[in-house]
What we know:
The chain is α/β, with parallel strands linked by helices. It has two domains: 4-250, TIM Barrel (Alpha-Beta Barrel), CATH 3.20.20; 354-440, Immunoglobulin-like (Sandwich), CATH 2.60.40. It contains eleven helices and 20 strands. The protein has helices spanning 12-15, 22-35, 81-93, 167-183, 199-207, 229-240, 252-263, 278-281, 304-313, 322-327, 339-349, and strands spanning 4-6, 40-42, 97-102, 112-115, 122-126, 188-191, 210-212, 215-217, 220-223, 247-250, 286-289, 317-321, 354-359, 363-368, 377-382, 389-394, 401-408, 418-419, 425-430, 434-440. The protein has an eight-stranded parallel β-barrel, surrounded by five helices. The chain has a six-stranded antiparallel β-sheet with strand order 13-14-15-20-17-18.
Amino acid sequence: MAVMMQAFYWDAAAKENKVGEWWNNVAEKVPQLKASGFDSLWLPPISKCPTQSSNGYDPYDYFDLGDIDQKGAVKTAYGNRAELEKLIKAIHDNGMGAIADMVINHNSGADEEEVNPIDGEKRWTKFNPKSGKFPRDWNCFHPSRYEKVMMEGENFAGFPHLCHRNPRVYEAMYEYARMVIEELGFDGFRFDFVKGFGAWMIGLLAKYQYQKDGKDFTPFVVGEYWSGPEDIEGWLDRINRVTDQQIAAFDFPLRYKLKDVCDKPGYGLTNLANSNSVVASRPFNAVTFVENHDMGGNEIVNDKMLAYSFILTNDGYPCVFWYDYYNCELARPGTPGGIDALIAAHHAHAGGESCVLHVDNDLYIMQRGGNEGQTGLIYVLNNLGDKWSGTSVKTKWANQRFKPVAWDGHDIAHPDERTTDGDGNAEFPAPPRGYCVYAPVFE
Length: 443
């Protein structure tokens, strides 16, 4: 499985003095990110918003990518179209994919207020974008003549929400998605706040017959359904009825478990082994993560590498957060105790069936069985804060030598190699409040 990088964080351009230059900033780091083992970059929303300080989640003109003087600026917070295209080319030249952030449920920055004749309420719903594409009025939003209920899903931040059942809106979203894939060259979509609109809309955009290099192209698609496991399961069921099961969801339930592992002393590791997460029930539909741009005020504050060790050795499509990797300096290149070492272990070893070999409140040991391209591994997570801990487990490998390939914790002494007996048994320890990844050595 691949590894994704979320290549931004909230107010990243402003905080790093890169307003209007973020695309160029990311482009400079693409070769290093490829060398570190990343396979795709999730980029922030690309369209013009009401202010240049916007992070992109309140779109005004979908088709102005930073080239038209409107709303007080020419460039977006991230740059212009030429710079975006240059970044995507660099991503592709380095053998990686680019994931577009699609905000298609709410808009902001309207030019005029209008009275909606359906309910008599006055709202900011008159949009006259200078791109000349997708001008809209009250009938493009909820409630409209196409759907008199307020909206299909939940409201977000009081913004007017698009009514996708209006043919004008429906057509504009198709044109926007087609531009993103066919003109700009993106390889997939991350859909924002999918609670706010019908699953059928994503299904239609995912199933459109895109063309890249003269061939049919199917984009990768992941949705942000910020809720519990049952709600996400229901959304995946609804959306996969109109797709080919290719749609993924961010694993919010797992993320909150990992926060508890890191920040709540004594939190039982048995919680990691139950089925209450996307990756446990649908490993091929799970994008796992530790932090994202929306977690402000709810960040993990202790022992965050425990969480990264879990997502980079287990099932799912792991996503690494730019701020953690760079600003918190968790990459730690050239050491066994950082994200880079875990990415290397992920690619070389984290394949095949996952099997929990032992779990109690303080110790979790998991086996990846390996496949044709990956050797398999033993992953140990130790919740105890004052001592190394491990136990004997029965692996699938008899008389097999294992070497530690990635580890970290409150004691960073080098773990010893391990060798299983004729029945596949051996003891695998990890540092206090730490982890260790052991890989079989085939000679």
